Amino acid sequence: MEVETKILITAVGGGLFVLLIILLFVLYLNIVKRRGLEQENKLQALEKQKQFELFNATVQTEENEKQRIAADLHDEIAPLVAATSRNINYKLSEWATEGLDISEIKSDMETLTTISGRIREVSHGLVPKMFSSFGLLKSIEAYVTNFNKSSGGEAQFVNNTTFSGKLPLTANEQLLIFRICTELINNLDKHSDFEYLTISLEDVTDKFELLFTHDGNGITNEEIDRIRESGAGLGLKSLQSRTILLNANIDYTMADSVSYIKLTVPVKA
């Protein structure tokens, strides 16, 4: 009986020892797995941070280049064109008094005047003067007005919020939103063939939300992803980089004969 008891105790002790070894091994595996996941998460966070910094640097470089081009157009090219126009006008008045035919030259002069106007428009489009003076909403409104004049389109901007002056967004965030807005309008003008377009600022408490509503050819999020992945949509990649910097989202949907693009930007409390 005593021998059986010793055997039983030995067996139970051995079983408990084996169970303890198994538990320690499982615990070790869990620790290794958790550390692996933590390391992977750290690497992903580091990669995301590097990607964010790359996007930020790319966008900042782009903005600096736009400012340089705008300054060159406004300060150097536009004055030269204007001076040339004045000189030609002076010569035209002299030639007209001498009875010379100036009809063809006058036509060229009108073309030069048009070019001068377009240079100013491009310069202001690259770095909108109204943006620095009046902010995002007035800049969008002015852009839509100029878009209607140049394209003959029927677009409108509607502010459905109480926002009028200062927005709960930094100047850099507002500039990013403005760039996204103009890129979306240009994309719709090129590809959607719309007859009407409404850009509305929606009243959402903790978000800045712009809704683009139009009757043209719509597109879905899946189609946008396919175009972006194919490398064909450079404008879409520019939109993506800016939305990442804003921690924002662009949603493309269609319902019946109406298409929507919703830009949602979280607002810091």
Notes on the structure:
This protein is α+β, with helices and mostly antiparallel strands and 269 residues long. It has 2 domains: 1-127; 129-269, Heat Shock Protein 90 (2-Layer Sandwich), CATH 3.30.565. The protein contains 7 helices and 5 strands; from the N terminus they run H-H-H-H-E-H-E-E-H-H-E-E. Helix 1 (2-97) packs antiparallel against helix 2 and helix 1 packs across helix 7. The chain is elongated.
Count every beta strand, where a strand is a DSSP E run of 2 or more residues: 5
Overall, the morphology is elongated
Number of domains: 2
The whole-angstrom Rg is 32 Å
Which bin fits the share of residues in helices?
Answer: 55-70%
CATH architecture of the largest domain: 2-Layer Sandwich
Low-pLDDT segments:
none
CATH third-tier fold name of the largest domain: Heat Shock Protein 90
How big a fraction of the residues is strand? 5-15%
Multimeric organization: single chain
Helix and strand sequence: HHHHEHEEHHEE
- CA-CA gap between termini: 77 Å
Strand order of the largest sheet: 1-2-3-5-4
Name the CATH superfamily assignment of the largest domain.
Histidine kinase-like ATPase, C-terminal domain
Mean pLDDT: 76
Largest sheet: 5 strands, mixed
The structure class reads alpha+beta
CATH class of the largest domain: Alpha Beta
Helices, by number, come to: 7
